[in-house]
Design brief:
4 helices; mainly alpha
Length: 97
């Protein structure tokens, strides 16, 4: 049962990271009117999405036992996927948008 919840939590974080990467690339490239090119705000948005996903998973699946479990099931997959998507969209953003 524990492995099943770990897979679900990781999957939720990866999907949220892809969405966060898209949103933060829009902010970083200045595609949202009024915000300009703002990497600091983009980073803050990504961290807020990570925190929100952590809270959502806690409510859906119960509290994780220990920080290490939460780190490897949520934070690391989110960070990796988010940075990869954000970097790809930043480098090829002018072509894609």
């Amino acid at each position: 049962m524990e492995i099943d919840n770990s897979v679900k939590i990781t999957s939720i974080h990866v999907v949220a990271a892809i969405v966060a990467g898209y949103i933060t690339s829009l902010v970083s490239l200045g595609m949202i009117p009024g915000l300009g090119e703002n990497e600091i705000l983009a980073t803050l948005i990504g961290l807020v999405i990570l925190y929100a996903m952590g809270q959502l998973c806690d409510r859906l699946f119960g509290k994780q036992e220990g920080f290490k479990k939460w780190l490897w099931d949520g934070i690391v997959p989110f960070a990796f996927a988010w940075f990869v998507v954000w970097t790809i969209l930043l480098n090829y953003g002018s072509v894609l948008y």
